[in-house]
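Minutes, structural biology subgroup

Action item carried over from last meeting: produce the structure token record for Multicopper oxidase domain-containing protein (Pyxidicoccus fallax). EB confirmed the sequence was re-checked against the source entry. Recorded below for completeness.
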Amino acid sequence: MSHPPPVRGPAPHAPEVSSSSLGALSRAVLALLVLGLITAGALGVSRWSAARTIPARAPLPDTVPTTGRVHDFVLEAAPTTLPLLDGRGLEVWAYNGQVPGPTLRATVGDTVRVRLTNRLPQPTTIHWHGIRLPNGMDGVPGVTQPPIEPGASFTYEFQVKDAGTFWFHPHLRGSEQVERGLFGLLIVEEPSPPAHSRELVWVLDDWRLDERGQIDPRFNTRGDLAHDGRWGQVLTVNGAFQPTVRVRPGERLRLRLVNVANGRVFSPALRGVDAQLIAFDALVTDRPLPAEGLTLAPGNRADLLLTVPPQLRGGRVQVVDRFGRGERVLAELEVEGKPAAPPQALPPL
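Output recorded by EB:
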């Protein structure tokens, strides 16, 4: 098993920008803005004419037919110790004793009912990231609901109207509670999913560890706030450091990706595998698109179809993060086993 790099010095963050650079940048942005306004005025009529020829996507329906099905889930948020990262015990906060938390599943038109009990040393809530739901179920403390105090419970209930990959997390002290491990997935199945042999769910995250190898308890530092959030020095997939995932030659996988990091942007590259983007933030693409250059900011989700070439049998494929300088290994695909039947052809690009 690979081991995370030793902790030496401060965790990485975005490079600092001087005030003179910011001034020059501001002037450049202003110049571009003025130029854009002038150009827009000169070409307004032609741009409007061209825009009218672009077909508009139908708006999302306000209501969907109910299926009559109700899914009851029970979640408990509590401190625990889990063998994450390289397998050593990591002190975390978790839903139902696992990180990532449970993956909840439903189908469009179903009703989801989730009872959360708070065993944390501080109040919490759950926000359903990307889900269209009643305002009272959105999990914003002091706005849509009272905070869930330690020892108390709250029940969330809503109908799922849209298919896609969603996730849930606290909206109270989220910069700490999410970083300690409180996140999970809600997957809403579409009535007619694209053809694939099986599904993989990958939750991408980074962890800032202190000298003890535990989660650094210093949250919202001046460095974090002055840059672009908290960056960790250990990257994981589903809480594991550089895991190996076995796949069959010739098979097609549906890969659901979620970035739950606080500040880090991921750009996963799957070399040697045919990767097609079919949805981004639960919005389905008109057709499969090449996934090369895919970038996931914090909170983004992407659905991919991966086709493993038969000739890769017996080989390995590294999945690397290419955002910023250098590359960092996220996971490795080990291609072995009996070749799968040829997958159904995808629509042309």
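Discussion: Residues 198-335 form a domain with the Immunoglobulin-like fold (CATH 2.60.40.420).
Next step: EB to file the record with the rest of the batch.
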